[in-house]
């Protein structure tokens, strides 16, 4: 028993090794960043598919569009028009105004007007750029504004050109710690609510508003691998709505066609929403018509909304797991795929459960995104599919190959035993008699040679009948005509019909037939085992024809009895003692049946049938512990 268990475990080692090799390979691909791009695509897709959110009433965007430029007939927009817009907005008493338009140089006419306006409006936040871009360019803030009213607009784009992160704070070229435009707006607004911006005790780059910590982006956050996490960055949790904020034009403000409640005590952002301005940001995580044509001021509004909503509404930031939990998650799905491949033998059932597992994985990751958790899906998907489908196919092939090698070994053993026990023994007797100088009459010598000749012919008949006829009948004919994915009782009934049709003359003379084909417990049967059971029934039926003379009653029972599956063939014929000298070696089929019973953990029996005839029976229990079936 222990030897069988040890053999079973050893035979499974190659499959488990292959499964963990697959997991290790996918993990390696993730470690070197090869799956990062696919993770970004999945993340962006989930972000867009989230349930629709409400409009953020705290934010108003004043977008200077193409019609405004055509009406003013100037671009960049002159200082006097910007100054007039700021002064008019001031009358509506917004909490904070954010000017996301470059004003480092005078744009006449009206430069003195805008300088005065900058001095008078204390809740104005303007922009500058402190980190050089690829061309080495930066720009300065508007003149006469204190540093407290300036925030940088430097953005962090991923290697695919899309923005998923926001840089909230960083050091400039002079190593001075600076805050972003969006953080300045959120800080100013929340300060009026009595919520100041503070540091995080255990993180020198961390920030918080009361108990709400701004979850700082790390190099391996979510699907990122060794990303630049310099400064203080966060993952952007875009507000999922096609139009998440109220947007009005410069003309509408100047004409007074605006709801004052959209401005009073609110956050107002002013920016360009004109294609000619080319202030575009590429971001697939936003629910927009074109991911590549999102205006910069819209991205700024999303970040401000994220910060304020997290503090005042408990709206979730984007959370991620620690690296160790992410890799345990990936390994877990790989083990699930490997387990399914080992537990389920039916290919269609296997495909169903793999699809079910994939859907579960997607739904789990999607559900977690909804509540603000980004969990890696791509490597988990690959380990699940590769181990579930790929290794299952490899396992079935390996299993089939082992069965066929085992069967052919039985043939070799059968032939060896037959040759060794009879022709070689006869030849040895002849040689001894010749070497002993005993008188051996020509007639006796010829008789011995004839006996040897017959024994050799019997061996040839044995090989032809058992190894060729029986084995080929099953492996080549049945494999082509049977659909082994069907229920086992249906397949066995089809085998019965095939044998009866091929031997119609014999079986038609049997006066009484008792047939019973009922549902059997085949949960743990592999395709190769179902094929071997078909071969067992076929051989048992053919043996009735070959060895049971005068059979008038035949019982073929394929059902469940006392919690066990049973295949039983019983006849009432007289056994033919053909080939008496080789009677002990006609059991090739019996050896195959014994081998099959050992694989199934069952029992094979051949015993007399009262009052005459023989019974050939194979029985096995399908109740195995699920974890034992993994080996």
Percentage of residues in strands: 15-25%
Please count the helical segments. Answer: 17
Query: Over the alpha carbons, how many angstroms does the gyration radius reach?
Result: 41 Å
Structural class: alpha/beta
Could you give a short account of the major beta sheet? 6 strands, parallel
User: What portion of residues is helical?
Assistant: 40-55%
Could you tell me the number of beta strands?
23
Shape assignment: elongated
Spatial separation of the terminal alpha carbons: 15 Å
Which stretches are poorly predicted, pLDDT < 50 over at least 5 residues?
1-11, 468-480, 578-586
Structural domain count: 3
pLDDT average, as an integer? 84
**Looking across the biggest beta sheet, what order are the strands in?**
4-3-2-12-1-11
Task: Write up what this structure looks like.
- By secondary structure, this protein is α/β, with parallel strands linked by helices.
- α12 (423-435) packs antiparallel against α13 and α16 runs antiparallel to α17.
- It starts with a helix and ends in an 11-residue tail after the last strand.
- β8 and β9 (212-213) form a beta hairpin.
- It contains 17 helices and 23 strands.
- 37% of the residues are buried.
- A six-stranded parallel beta sheet has the order 4-3-2-12-1-11, sandwiched between helices. The protein has a five-stranded mixed beta sheet with strand order 17-19-20-23-22.
- It is elongated and about 140 Å long.
- It has three domains: 2-32 and 322-394; 36-320, no CATH class; 482-631, Heat Shock Protein 90, CATH 3.30.565.
